[in-house]
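Problem: given the chain below (253 residues), write out its structure.
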Amino acid sequence: MSDLDLLNALKAYDYKKSKIKIIAESFGLTENELKKFYTTYFFREISQKINLENLSQISIAHIDSSFTNEDKKIFNFIKNDMKKIIEKSLYIAMTNGFSTNINHIESGVMTANAGDSAEFIFVARAILAGFNCSSVDVRSSRYDAIIDFDDVLLRVQIKGISTGNTISFKDRDRGGQGIDHYHERNIGKRITSKDCDIYVAVDKQVGICYIIPMHWADTLSDDDCKNVKLNQIEHYKENWDIVRQISKSSKTN
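Solution.
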């Protein structure tokens, strides 16, 4: 079985995603791994056919055409800087985000490693933003990192998200063969302000951080906290000022 065999099989079905399961079964593969192969391959093929500099210039021209008078003068001030960052961002978009599991690590191990990667992404982003931030090495801890800001220690729990559009303020239930799924010890606990001061959802695909104060999460019902859509927390997207606000609030309480 070669890459060409897999590509020809999809071509025979006119590139319909609904046929991936049939193709996977015929080659002894899982549907998910075959879908990932196709997605990675086609992103690479398309990205090689696109001139990112030209594409960024088109974006800049579109933005430029939206402004008049004073706004256009303001835009001209940052135009060159914006063009550079758009070109970098387009590169990430054309490669389907950050590279994942290119060494084909076993799925269980990769899941654990991906969780660690979300933590490291946030810590690096926090340090880059100018905060004194460190990981917490004790895995039984209810928080993953500490931010030391303005003489206040803030506990941060970090979760990774990728292609989904929801987060949960509840731990996963323990699963597996021989585990009593109904026992209290195996049912995922709700994450509250007793566990951490800040909950961060890290988009592992592009590195975006949703920095959510736990006093907001505490207002959710037990049902609503299990399935929070990203558009509900848009205010907290890359909102690093939340760290300052919580630190200030902690000092006054």
